[in-house]
Amino acid sequence: MAAELLTKHDSSVESYLEHCLSLGRQFPEPASVKLILSSQPVKGGQGIGVLDVVVTTAKQCYTSGVALLKPQRDERSTAIAAGTLEAGHHTPRQHVHYTWRFEGISRSVTHDVFHAHPYYNSEQQSQRYVEAVEGSYVTPSRLTERQALLFKDAADYANQSYFRLLSAMGPEVDRRMHQMYPTSGWSVPKTAERLGGKARKIRREVARYVLPIAQKTTYYHTLSELQLLRLFRASQMENFSDEARYIIGAMVASIAAQDPTILQELQKPLPAFTLSKSAYIKEGKDKFDAFLNGSDSVMLPLSSEVRQNLAIAVCNVLGEPRLSTEEALARLLDPGINLLIADVYDVGMLDPLTSALRQASPTFLTKLSHTADSQRQRHRMTAGATPTIERSFDGSANYITPMIIRESEELRGLYDEMMQNVYGNVNRCLEAGMLADKALTLLPNAHALRVVESGDLFDWLHRWKLRLCYLSQEEIFFISVEQARQMLAVLPEAEKTFRSPCGIRKVAGVSPRCPEGDRFCGKPVFNMALEQYSGGRLI
Fold first, then answer.
1. Which residue among 58, 341, 435, 536 is buried most deeply as judged by most CB within 10 Å?
2. Segment 300-325, tens digit of pLDDT
3. Is 220 within 8 Å of 110 (Cβ atoms)?
4. Which SUPFAM superfamilies does this one have (predicted)?
């Protein structure tokens, strides 16, 4: 297959690619990887491959006039391609992009590999909007017969628990929905139907906490050539499972079937390595939680000069050195003055004034569930340092409980019983000799992760604008409230800015206040102060 396409390349790369592809045969149902889009020349361009794009764009740097996109297969072009690759001059490899459709891929490998870097785009089937299919989970490769049976029993139990929880939550969710939305709305058939759909979504959102991270998902995934080369190069790292290696091999092979020149770009993967195994996972968790002191997210100390630094940046870009700190920060942060703060396209990134927000970079220690971390990952510019799943598990049940369950004695008892059984099943698999990277895919979506996350204030503001909305995922919402309140204590001038989208739009005079249309949450959040947000959310 791929070996027939490889030319002029290290045989070890050929062998490794074939190994990756062969891993698919180890799975009862390997993921489907289909290439559906790839960059093409606007006109003509027959026979143009990724290598031709690389060489043409590289030549443009030192060509007077225009370097035309055309086949570039001569000896000099080959030397340019190889030389830029080896020297790390990789920007020519960001011009070509590919889009795949992944089906039957685990949420575990999605979180650990394909969404664990900044340079991708995904549109993924949501467990909030789509009810899980019982039995739809990835069974790991290379299990013994007994291990496979234990894994199946454990995954089936978690799937069945999901449907039990869906049913059990019905009355409590309905009660809260009637509290949250005006009584008059329920008497209108179309509105009642919409709210009923929202109630079903809420039940799915909460019930998914018991599903295993091995549960399957489907999504469209887009990468540049450069990022695909990086994935291939990194695929021996310990957080890359057999499933990840197979999928990466299939991604490369799907391109090679139409453009064999991609194979000449592959570099030998870095040698396999394993980080030292820590015997202090529990101690590390306890130390992290001591920093949190009961909170979900705590900001590390920020420079006392942050307000002054932002003001200096504002004065500089405006050419107005006589502005006071207060005046400068108002120009930057008040949506009534800086209307770009309210823009849903975030064109402020192109505005010198609004870009001054990048001169402050808060860092937070955050504890959240695996499923909420999958949401957090999508904000790729507030990146997190997240331990591998093996370094988050010390053998004990350590999980997040959603608000609706936490505040209901009956639901809490049922949920805790389910979680104890789920974690007990994981430990039974480990005791049966199953490798940790396979057994731990049975951990629930609720499993607690501890993350150190950082970003500049422009990107935090983008994240908070989206996640302070009452429609956002529950955990991320409450974490965002905590983070914004801590930042507001440092930067009180942002009182009109660290708000929900509707709150910002009200200050900016943008209509309608809620940008979500008929998905409006039913609460006048635009009239609330930040400190009122948590108490007003019931679902």
1. 341
2. 999 889 999 999 999 999 999 999 99
3. no
4. Thymidylate synthase-complementing protein Thy1 (SSF69796)
Residues 49 and 114 in one domain: yes
Phi and psi torsions of 215, nearest 5°: -60, 145
Contacts of 127 (CB under 8 A, 6+ apart): 204, 205, 208, 211, 215, 217, 371, 445
21: domain CATH number is 3.30.1360.170
Contact at 8 Å (CB) between 288 and 366?
A: no
Residue 276: the pLDDT is 64
Q: Do 455 and 381 touch, CB atoms closer than 8 A? A: yes
Residue 431 lies in a domain: yes
Same domain, 96 and 11: yes
Q: Does one domain contain both 463 and 474?
A: yes
Domain that holds residue 501: 306-359+456-536
How many domains are contained in the chain? 3
Is 384 in a helix, a strand, or coil? strand
Cα(133)–Cα(216) distance, rounded to whole angstroms?
Answer: 9
Is residue 530 within 8 Å of residue 492, measured between CB atoms?
no
Banded model confidence at residue 23, pLDDT cuts 50, 70, 90: very high
Domain check: are 223 and 193 in the same one?
no
The verdict on whether omega for the bond into residue 501 sits within 30 degrees of 0, i.e. cis, is no
Cβ contacts of residue 268 below 8 Å, gap of 6+?
10, 12, 13, 16, 233
Task: Please indicate, yes or no, whether residues 222 and 208 belong to a single structural domain of this protein.
Answer: no
In a domain, 236, yes or no: yes
Q: Tell the residue number behind the tokens 């998914």, with chain if given.
A: 208
> Does residue 260 register a pLDDT over 50?
yes
Report yes or no on whether pTM surpasses 0.90.
yes
**Cα gap 181→520, rounded to integer Å:** 10
Query: In the chain, how many H helices and how many E strands?
Result: 22, 8
Among 467, 304, 293, smallest CA distance to 365 is for 293
Mean pLDDT of 89-95: 97
For residue 298, being part of any structural domain is answered with no
Among residues 21, 215, 241, 196, the alpha carbon closest in space to that of 105 is found at: 215
Q: Are residues 412 and 504 in the same domain?
A: no
**For 207-237, what is each residue's pLDDT tens digit?**
999 999 999 999 999 999 999 999 999 999 9
Q: How far apart are CA 232 and CA 40, in angstroms?
A: 23
Residue 31 Rama label (left phi>0; alpha psi -120 to 50; beta): beta
* 162 and 221 together in one domain: no
If one counts every other C-beta atom within 10 angstroms of the C-beta of residue 234, the result is: 16
Whole-angstrom distance, CA of residue 384 vs CA of residue 366: 9
Provide mean pLDDT across the span 153-161. 98
